[in-house]
Design goal:
By secondary structure, this protein is an alpha+beta fold.
């Protein structure tokens, strides 16, 4: 460390403190004791120019439409608080601050200076505080209020003087000490009481005391003295201090006080030892650094290495003797096509700092990622660059991790195909290229047929294996320039680029269908899978990815509707009333948030009395643009995406709430039946969820029936039995829906805690005309009654059906013959009408 630099820093700190005293003194006088408003504003401008080093200051003041202007200008930068020493740039930085002083009163302060005035710069912060004090002073002058904020500033200044690391002494005009800070007492050993009223500035018993006394007492306003003096410690020994003495004056310019700032400089030899120690520590830091350090020459024709640290040797595998004298670019080898290399070349040419992420190569040829930083090293004068220091940081692990994260963010984890994020980008790129080249883009949306059955029958492991094999076959059917993506579940999208004709997509579609027609070998079994494919083409069907996906989705669902295992291209007629399945999921999520779902209730009629004894709750979706969407259109998707869980929970909660409302309205107790999906039924905490809904709604659990399909309860019978028992323990009734369409055995039926059988409507449709259907229905009713169960027939649409079911002693019926599903208010009206008719009869 340069001792001269330490001396200069003290001089600069002393000069800076003196200037601060002068500036704050004049500013205090200006703001606290103004004669009038123009004098206040004009004086503020002059202080900023004369004491703060601004080249130009200008104030515009507007009061009730009257405008005034005040300014001050300096030809060159004085040597004050924030000045740049570069006269060439004097006054090149500007700043304007606006303030609303009061209603109809506005002040604008504009300054120019040679120093930085950006938001992070210290001068800007100080100027902003001064300007705020000016505004407060203007308000105080106009409203006779005190300047409390400025007083706070002075208190802060006093605190900073007291806590300064430099010794500070304040005397009266005769040199008698009135104040000293903590640093003085620490350095000298004297307390304030011991030196108060003494001539501490020159009373040291040295030959120079008289000269110092004469020089200090001769100081006038704006003058200061600086130099090295000997001071005497309390214990009697002398020590050297660097001292700056300046005067403080009153309004008349008379000297009222002297201020001295001192620094102990007696331990120069110790300071030299500190410098040597610092150099040693820096050398040790280079040796101990975990980053590689490389120092090279800076000549235009010579960037040879002069030093490398042990970490460089460890990272690169090269010994220092092998690289000293070589240029650092040998680490890049022949891998020159790296964009960041140009940044390093430019930094070397321009002799500035540079940073780059490069592929470098170790001695054994292995690659590592080098986060390289280079910095120029100047000579003692700071004028010439003599060397460059390069810091080598092996970030291979971080870069590889980032690449892995990027891959995971853009690819499906199961199949390795592009995911939705990357798909959208590929579609946009393909369309942009096709637009420039006047080509076509084909988009195929593929959905595997009956994949859920395969999953359920063979397990998710087999389903995942099938998806992987499908992904491999799809990749084999397309070119490298095409994209195969998985949207999720069993849906895939293929983007075909650079198609000369829109009909070219048919060739790839046929190739895909043939590839999928071959059996797949999974877990030792041959499994066949088919697919429904919808096709849209740019530019025929749309000009951006969202439209093309939507239209391909619509075309794919037309294939589903017409038997599956085929390909269809989108035609405009398909989109007249369809809602895209790709948008359906997000629309359903919004629908749940925006209360677009509602329940309709279909009455259940007791055949013996003819009275309404219950209702089945059926969900409906009222889309704000499309209107009513029936369950058949959205329930399968809800099952597949998992939205059936929040939707099913909402349905149960709403049905229970409505049942309680009907009871409170005096309509009597009706059993409310709610359908439960397979996915809901398999939740581990199903009973707990249902119990929470019962508790929140206040419904009588005996008035709630959960309807489960026959096929649902026959999956994993032991687990089903446990779930049914936990639900029964809550007081709920259990109904076996669509009975007759599944594969339940009578033994299991007897073991299950079931309260009700619902005959599937397929057996009711022709019961009055088909003896076989009548025989099946009669057998189910007789079996149910013999087991002590209620038997409900759904889908009753004719009087003949109802009469025949009554003869068969069926317990309850529901269907369009009595009422279609209606909203809550219509259901209430139906019940009241039904009850009135029964009373009349």
């Amino acid at each position: 460390m340069d001792i001269t630099g330490r001396t200069n820093s003290l001089d600069e700190e002393s000069q800076r403190l003196e200037n601060w005293y002068l500036l704050l003194g004049e500013l205090t006088d200006c703001l606290w004791y103004p004669d009038d408003l123009p004098g206040l504003l004009e004086g503020f401008c002059k202080i900023l120019v004369l004491r703060a080093g601004y080249s130009h200051t200008e104030i515009f003041f507007e009061n009730n439409g009257e405008k005034s202007r005040f300014e001050a200008t300096s030809a060159r930068a004085p040597d004050f608080l924030f000045n740049s020493s570069d006269d060439e740039h004097y006054g090149t930085h500007a700043l304007t601050l606006d303030f609303n002083v009061a209603p109809q009163m506005h002040l604008t302060l504009s300054v120019r200076a040679s120093f930085e005035l950006n938001e992070a710069a210290e001068p800007r912060k100080v100027l902003t505080r001064f300007a705020e004090e000016l505004v407060s002073a203007v308000r105080a002058l106009l409203t006779t209020q005190d300047h409390h904020d400025l007083q706070n500033n002075l208190e802060l200044l006093a605190l900073s003087v007291h806590q300064s690391p430099y010794a500070i002494l304040i005397t009266n005009a005769a040199g008698e000490l009135e104040y000293c800070n903590a640093a003085y007492t620490r350095i000298s050993g004297f307390s304030l009481n011991e030196v108060r009223k003494t001539h501490a500035l020159w009373n040291n018993g040295a030959a120079s005391d008289a000269a110092h006394r004469h020089a200090f007492l001769a100081l006038k306003s704006g003058e200061h003295w600086h130099g090295d003096v000997q001071s005497r410690h309390l214990n009697g020994h002398l020590y050297w201090e660097r001292q700056v003495v300046s005067s403080l004056c009153n309004e008349a310019g008379q000297v009222t006080h002297l201020v001295a700032v001192r620094q102990d400089i007696s331990d120069k030899q110790f300071q030299l030892q500190e410098v040597e120690q610092a150099l040693l520590l820096r050398e040790q830091a280079l040796v101990s650094s975990s980053n590689g350090i490389m120092i090279t020459r800076s000549d235009e024709a010579d960037h040879s290495i002069v030093y490398v640290n042990p970490a460089f040797e460890r990272i690169t595998g090269y010994h220092a003797d092998e690289v000293i004298g070589r240029e650092g670019r040998f680490l890049v080898r022949d891998d020159l096509a790296q964009p960041d290399l140009e940044e390093i070349r430019s930094a070397l040419r321009e002799r500035r700092e540079g940073r780059a992420l490069l592929r470098n190569y170790r001695k054994d040829g292995s690659q590592f990622w080098n986060e390289l930083r280079i910095s120029p090293v100047k000579d003692a004068a700071g004028a010439v660059t003599t060397h460059f220091v390069s810091v080598i940081n092996d970030v291979s692990e971080r870069v590889n991790y980032q690449k892995e994260l990027e891959y995971q963010a853009t690819h499906d984890s199961l199949t390795g195909l592009a995911n939705r994020n990357l798909l959208n980008d590929r579609i946009s790129q393909a369309i942009a290229w096709a637009k420039r080249q006047n080509l076509h883009v084909g988009l195929l949306l593929l959905d595997l047929d009956h994949f859920k059955l395969i999953n359920d029958a063979s397990g998710h492991g087999a389903g995942d294996e099938m998806l992987k094999q499908v992904a491999q076959r799809l990749n084999m059917c397309v070119r490298d320039t095409d994209t195969v993506a998985r949207l999720g579940g069993d849906e895939f999208v293929i983007v075909l680029t650079d198609l000369p004709e829109s009909g070219d997509v048919d060739v790839i579609s046929e190739k895909i269908m043939q590839s999928l027609s071959r059996p797949m070998h999974i877990n030792g079994s041959e499994i066949f899978v088919t697919a429904s494919i919808g096709v849209s083409v740019y530019p025929r069907d749309g000009d951006h990815g969202e439209i093309l996906l939507r239209y391909a989705d619509i075309a794919m669902y037309r294939v589903k509707e017409h038997g599956r295992n085929s390909v269809r291209q989108f035609i405009p007629e398909m989109g007249v009333t369809a809602i895209s399945r790709l948008n359906m999921e997000s629309a359903m999520r919004r629908g749940l948030e925006r209360a677009e779902f509602a329940l309709h209730y279909q009455p259940k009629i007791d055949l013996k009395s003819g009275l309404v004894v219950g209702a089945e709750a059926l969900v409906r979706w009222y889309h704000p643009q499309i209107g009513l969407i029936h369950p058949i259109e959205f329930i399968p998707l809800a099952e597949e995406t998992g939205l059936i869980l929040p939707l099913g929970e909402w349905v149960l909660n709403e049905a229970c709430r409505q049942q309680v409302a009907w009871v409170n309205n005096g309509m009597g107790v009706f059993k409310i039946a709610v359908n439960m999906s397979s996915r809901q039924f398999r939740q581990d905490d199903l009973a707990e969820r249902v119990a929470n809904i019962i508790q929140r709604s206040g419904v009588d659990p005996h008035a709630v029936t959960l309807e489960l399909t026959e096929s649902m309860v026959m999956q994993d019978v032991s687990s089903t039995l446990m779930t049914l028992r936990s639900l029964k323990n809550l007081g709920l009734s259990i109904s076996l829906d669509d009975f007759g369409t599944g594969y339940s055995s009578l033994s299991y039926l007897r073991r299950f805690p079931i309260d009700e059988l619902k005959i599937d409507k397929s057996f009711i449709n022709d019961i009055h005309v088909n003896p076989d259907d009548a025989a099946i229905a009669g057998a189910i009713i007789a079996m149910g009654l013999s087991l002590g169960l209620n038997v409900v027939a759904e889908g009753v649409e004719k009087n003949e059906q109802a009469s025949l079911l009554k003869e068969m002693r069926c317990t309850q019926v529901q269907g369009y013959y009595f009422s279609k599903p209606v909203d809550a208010s219509a259901f209430e009206a139906f019940v009241l009408k039904n009850q009135a008719r029964r009373v009349e009869e």
